[in-house]
Amino acid sequence: MAEQYQVTGRTAAEISASVESGIRDGHLPGGAALPPVRALAAGLDVSPGTVAKAYQELRLRGLVATAGRNGTRVRPRPPVAATRAAAQLPVPAGVLDLASGEPDTRLLPPLSPHLAALAAENDPPRGYADVGVLPAVVDAARARLAADGVPAQAVTVTSGALDGIERLLTARLAPGDAVGVEDPGWGNLLDLVAALGLTPVGVPVDDEGPTVAGVRGALAAGVRALIVTARAQNPYGAAISAVRARALRDLLAGAPELLLIEDDHAAELATETLHPLAGATGSWAFLRSASKPYGPDLRLAVLAGDAATVARVAGRMSIGSGWVSTVLQRLALRLWSDPAAGEIVAGARRSYAERREGLLAALRQRGVPAHGRSGINIWVPVADETHAVAALRDAGFAVAPGARFRLGAPAGIRITVSRLDPARTDALAEAVRHAFRPATPRGFTT
Hints:
By secondary structure, this protein is of the alpha/beta class. It has helices at about 10-25, 35-45, 50-60, 85, 110-120, 135-145, 160-170, 185-195, 210-220, 240-250, 290-295, 305-320, 325-335, 340-365, 385-395, 425-435; strands at about 65, 70-75, 95, 155-160, 180-185, 200-205, 210, 225-230, 260-265, 285-290, 300-305, 375-380, 395-400, 400, 410-415. It contains 16 helices and 15 strands. The longest helix has 27 residues, at about 340-365. The two termini are about 35 Å apart.
């Protein structure tokens, strides 16, 4: 725990509020360790049961996580709005940021020409009765999904992939329900599952996607939903192969009540053929976001699924946020149909693939195992994440520690290649080689 912050309180509510305040103000950043229950109880002169109750409340709200001998720690992204200074961990000057997990903004298509064109259309202002999912967007989405083999009779639009996943989970599950998630998997998703009070069940991942044995184990554990990434899996770089898709569809056919959520966040940036699982269970949803290929500010994702599931999501939106802005929908429609934007996205797709494959080849030459079949991230197994991250930072490269993405998976680091200059590939690979094999500490001699 940060030395400058002391947890206070006499009741469980006061103690949990003190911890939350520390998180909000940045004194307890993501990953910060909280005191052991008995130590904090002694320091506050309260019973261990009072502290345990406070920690339990914080866990149920997704602010902290307990990991055996690692104790209780603040989650990487707890559902509490922190100050801007607390939310940002700046990369030092002269260090290349390969930790973000984000696409290169220099390779995104410009939005201003399309926004200008929308303004020139001079459409009359819309009232509440005239908004919602635009039929033209639904038609275009169906055609694009059908080209990839995704059935899309029922379609709606959400504010990005994570928004869609949250709406799906809350529409079908209740706090305490078990959810199968990839391990290692998307850190934001793990934090969302915790914030919703759901119980994550890790599903191991290899280069071809979630393993059959892992999915079988999750089903045996009683998961009510399973979330998988079609391709460009974050952080492992997996893509579901044709063989794996057939095996998983056969397995999932025996679980008709399972909610299957499939995330194709890379969309047009993916070089791999899509092998969808859509329709393998009675309740399913397939999400495709516009943020990765067209820009993170385009908060829009197409959600296709069975009629009942899509109706639940759309119905819940209708009494809450209502709809995704029709301005954003019209903007997405223009980008989808613009050949020039398509060429820019295709160029980004080729660039990311070249950077990823170049780094993988350089690592192989140095005997360093790594994974990254698809997308903008590479996963490197390491024995000591802290040592590897520190050594690479000293060499001028910021990478992400794997703890952010893991439940029970072995340690590793994530390297985002989207901003990697090919001229620095060999230097990075050499730095990874040194970080991958930390020096053996000297023992005592007699």
